[in-house]
Amino acid sequence: MKYASLDIGTNTFRLLIAEVEGAALKPLLYKRTITRLGGNFTEAGIDPKAAERAFSALSDFRRIVSENGVDKVYAVATSVVRRARNRDWFLIEVNKRTGFRLDVISGDEEARLSLLGVMNVIKDSRVNRLVMDIGGGSTEFITTKGGDIRGAWSMEMGVVHLTEKFLKSDPPLGSELNSLEDDIKGVVGEIKGLMAKDGIDPVEYSAARGALLVGTAGTITTLAAMDQDLETYDRDRINNYTLTLEKVKNMYKRLSVMTLKEREDVLTLEKGREDLIIPGSAITFIVMESFGFQEIKVSDAGLLEGIILRASKVGALG
């Protein structure tokens, strides 16, 4: 059976078409488009111009799904749609224009499905793992022990919102970067507090205790592509790639003093991510430092793969 999964994210829309053979997932087609659905997000909800970009991208995805003879389609919406006051209008409009029915999933469900996808590709024998999924509107943290989830937390710390809140100048001022970093450090402190509240010692998921840190989603995969000078994105060279703290900090320092135009000319930096890479790399190195990690393992697999793996086993996402 051929499955398609769609991830309607705050910054990026992604499509995966795959088959499942036993417990293994066989990817057939992968596409992602930056729509910045969460751009200019207000109390009223999703911005009309952002919504139009979304409808256009999803119409393209519908064409691809139709052309590839997919048997089952599962489409989920995450952070920005969860929060939007006009989400019912958006969901109805998506269905009317494309035929897709979007399932708005909770942060906890997003974390669990992402973990299922990550576990399918990461090759490492360490028992304790801290998995971080940096998104446009939120960042999910998951702790596992021997493959079992011990905890999952979704924090409203996304690269789109951080960019719009803190980075007003081009290039960003030192004071703006300091405020950005302080805000991220505050959220990481909250993460540790939530872990402790749920009976999980944060130290258990630190480098000092031999844990593994795994990163997934666009920021991490972009940093891995840049570190390897990949002008053409190659998922096989991204999965299980190891980024060092030193490399991440160096990329952050180099990119944050560039103008937006200069970042646009960096061939290995995904187009549409030129401003978002700054808060994304800041989240990465601050989490690494906070938990004592010198390395982070990269996974290009995550939510999309988790959706299909879950659906192939139980016939639905529930």
Could you please describe the fold and organization of this structure?
The chain has 318 residues and is α/β, with parallel strands linked by helices. The chain folds into 2 domains: 2-107, ATPase, nucleotide binding domain (Nucleotidyltransferase, domain 5, 2-Layer Sandwich), CATH 3.30.420; 124-300, 2-Layer Sandwich (Nucleotidyltransferase, domain 5), CATH 3.30.420.150. It has 12 helices and 11 strands. The strands form 2 sheets. It has a 6-stranded mixed beta sheet with strand order 8-7-6-9-11-10, with helices on both faces. Strands 3-2-1-4-5 form a 5-stranded mixed beta sheet, with helices on both faces. Strand 7 (139-145) and strand 8 form a beta hairpin.
Residue windows where pLDDT falls under 50 for at least 5 positions: none
Task: For the record, give the distance between the C-alpha atoms at the N and C termini, rounded to a whole number.
Answer: 19 Å
Q: Which CATH architecture of the largest domain is right?
A: 2-Layer Sandwich
- Main sheet record: 6 strands, mixed
- Looking at CATH, the homologous superfamily of the largest domain is Exopolyphosphatase. Domain 2
N to C succession of SSEs? EEEHEHHEHEEEHHEHHEHHHEH
Per CATH, the class of the largest domain reads: Alpha Beta
Strand order of the largest sheet: 8-7-6-9-11-10
